[in-house]
Each structure stands twice: as structure tokens, then as C-alpha cells.
Prior knowledge:
Layout: H1 6-22, H2 39-49, H3 54-58, H4 61-69, H5 76-91, E1 96-99, H6 104-121, E2 129-132
Parallel strand pairs: 1-2
Helix pairs in contact: 2-5, 5-6
Amino acid sequence: TMPKEPTVLRQNILDTTAAILACGIDPKKCILFRQSLVPEHAELAWILGCLTNVPRLLRLPQWKMKRASQNSEGTVGLLTYPVLQAADILLYKSTRVPVGEDQVLHLELAQDIAQHFNKKYGEFFPVPKAILSEL
């Protein structure tokens, strides 16, 4: 949600990929891809954003904290980031999502969006459940 220098962003992508591989992820057993190259993430985020009300997003604690830390009114990207996270989860019809305590409310938003979508358009998205970990 913050502007990045293109060269720094590209290096961050490479560094993150290297860290994932260093953790032991086997690319022969899983698929690694750059999410930013999959337009369906942004497309689904747009659709889900059209089903999500602004007051709900404004109540999220992360919005309040990050907006305050940015010493400004905040950006649309920051406000709608939880909808993009919901799209990231729902696009793959995820049923279980590992989250930290700080992301539980965002997962609850994804659950609510999935239920709202399903009620309006028919059963399509499974409602994802949290896998909480101490780590």
C-alpha cells in the first residue's frame, strides 16, 4: 500500500522467493508464482469490493493504526487491502488459512464476504476457517 521504487520491489520479490526456497519449500511439489502476474486477484478484489461496505472497512483496527502511523488520511489502497486479502483467499477456494492473531479480523471479513456472495449468487466460495498458530 506504500509506493516502492521499482528496483527495490523487484529485489524484494527475488529475496522473498529465495527465503521461501531456503525454508525448504520444494518447487517440484508446489507451485510458486508471482501473484501480481495473476490478474484474477485484482479482478475478484474489484467484484468483492463492490459487495463490501466502507463503514466495515473503516472499523478495522489495522486501518486505524496504519492510517495514524502514515500521519495522513490514508489511501484507498490501505483501506481496501483487506478486500484484496479476501480475494487472495477466495480465488483459490481456500478452506483453511494460517493466520496470526493480528489477521483474524481480516479473515472474518473474508468469511463475511464469502457468505454475502454465496447468499446473493448461490453457493460458490467455501467459507474459510482460521488456522491459528503461536508462531
